[in-house]
From TrEMBL:
InterPro entries: Zincin_1, Zincin_1_sf. Signal peptide: none annotated. Pfam families: Zincin_1. SUPFAM superfamilies: Metalloproteases ('zincins'), catalytic domain. This is Neutral zinc metallopeptidase.
Length: 133
């Protein structure tokens, strides 16, 4: 999504872009994403930032919440389903600063967070992102 004027994309537009990123993930990986929900917030709250060791809310664009598949078990219960939260304002700022297409930026963050769902390393996440492009 390239824009040069007008209002910034809404939370609903961000959600649409996130779901489009999920649709681009290859089948062998995508079959393990059922149940992950996407949420859009303006910024991470103070508790989340503190838990991540981040002082500036502008530095966090997305976060995976949940147990990674490599640590999941049928014996674990009472936890919320996994979710990915995208932080709209930091993503908008990065979009403006980098001039990267917003759809590509959101896909990058979604794929990175999906990588956490699988317990992947950063290198493995970059390889997954390369497959999606």
């Amino acid at each position: 999504m390239t824009r040069t004027f007008g209002p910034p994309p809404s939370a609903a537009e961000f959600e649409r872009l996130a779901h489009a990123a999920f649709a681009r993930i290859p089948a062998p990986v995508a079959q393990h994403l059922d149940g992950i929900t996407v949420h859009i917030e303006e910024f991470a709250d103070e508790e989340t930032l503190g838990a991540m060791g981040i002082e500036d809310a502008w530095e966090l664009t997305g976060l995976y919440h949940g147990r990674s598949m490599d640590t999941d078990s049928v014996w674990i219960s009472g936890e919320f389903p996994p979710r990915i939260t995208l932080y709209r304002q930091p993503l908008l700022a990065e979009w403006c600063e980098t001039e990267v297409d917003l759809e590509d930026l959101v896909a990058h963050v979604v794929i990175h967070e999906v990588g956490h769902h699988f317990g992947l390393s950063d290198d493995a996440m970059h390889a997954l992102e390369d497959q999606v492009r």
